[in-house]
Amino acid sequence: MRQRTVLITGCFKGGLGDAIARALHQRGLRVIATARNPAKMAHFREQGIETLTLDVLSPASISMCVAAVAEKTGGGCVTQIVRAEPFVPLLLKSEHGAIIANNTSLASVVPMPMGGIYNARKAATAMLTDNLRLELSPFNIKVVDLKTGAVKTPFFNNQIGGAKPSVRVEGRGSRVSRSEGLHYMLR
Length: 187
Fold this sequence. Notes:
- By secondary structure, the protein is of the alpha/beta class.
- It is built from five helices and eight strands.
- The protein has one domain (about 5-155): Rossmann fold, CATH 3.40.50.
- A four-stranded parallel sheet has the order 3-2-1-4, with helices on both faces. A two-stranded parallel sheet has the order 5-6. A two-stranded antiparallel ribbon has the order 7-8.
- Residues about 180-185 have low confidence and may be disordered.
């Protein structure tokens, strides 16, 4: 029996994917960590964690990653990825039973000021996860939703442009961050 393999997206240093990759590797699973920028995964080399480049918004990048995972594993992996469809053939071959774990957020069920687009995206991912659970259960593929809460990560540093959400508050004359805006609204 082959070692169980886990493919994790968004594994930039200090993020949730990074923490999940390290934790699963420490538990003896074979981890393939992915991110758009390979330089942000250099720290995995010394830990013995394999890495692949993956931009989940690029069909070409997804195709190359699927091919690389298939070559590395011969098929069969547990995956955390919203674009799971290209990986389904590999998941169907899993000797251990496959799992898709999508990381949504409490923001998918609890509105957060100045986070409407983020909240909506996470709610859509949660609904997709629920649908995938129903659609893939006949194929012995489990689908779970990780609803994380407030976790300190360099999330905004990895956004294109690195801008943190802010809004101009009438009467203040300056921009405030999401947390400052929430505090201001609750006064």
